[in-house]
Amino acid sequence: MNWSDRKFQTAVLLLLISILAAVILLGVLTEDEAVDKAAYVNLERVFEEHPAKTAAEQTLNQKAAEYQQQLESKAEELSGTEQKEVLAEYQQRLQDLESELLASVTEEVEKVIKETAAEKKVKFVLEEEQVLYGGYNLTDDVLKKLREEW
């Protein structure tokens, strides 16, 4: 084959064009839209505005009032050391309840962040404090979804 042959030049050109078209087509078909998308969430704001926060606070306040009444009624019958032990027991119960409520809210927030990120085709989600520049603020979207589910 001779490079000056017109048919050979046309065949090489068509081959190169078809290879280039195949590469472009494969790139378009397999492109992950979320590869470069990053977002951030202001977790402090999410927890502050979470609808479950009020319910959790009410539950804790009710339990604290209940334990205080029980302690006051038992305190008359108990010595100082026994009163301290009962008080420590009630405080531990309140801490356990608080931890349980916080864990359930945290779990729910993580689930909603993952769902919202998937809907927005976001690959990475960071805490707002960790972001220096760029990214999409996902906070409002997460809060909206939490309110809808509540």
From TrEMBL:
GO-annotated biological processes: protein stabilization
InterPro entries hit by this protein: Chaperone_Skp, Skp_dom_sf
Family listed: Belongs to the Skp family.
GO cellular component, one term: cytosol
Protein name: Periplasmic chaperone for outer membrane proteins Skp
MF term (GO), any: unfolded protein binding
Gene3D superfamilies associated with the record: Skp domain (3.30.910.20)
Signal peptide: none
Keyword annotations: Coiled coil, Signal
A family per Pfam: OmpH
Coiled-coil regions listed in the entry: 57-107
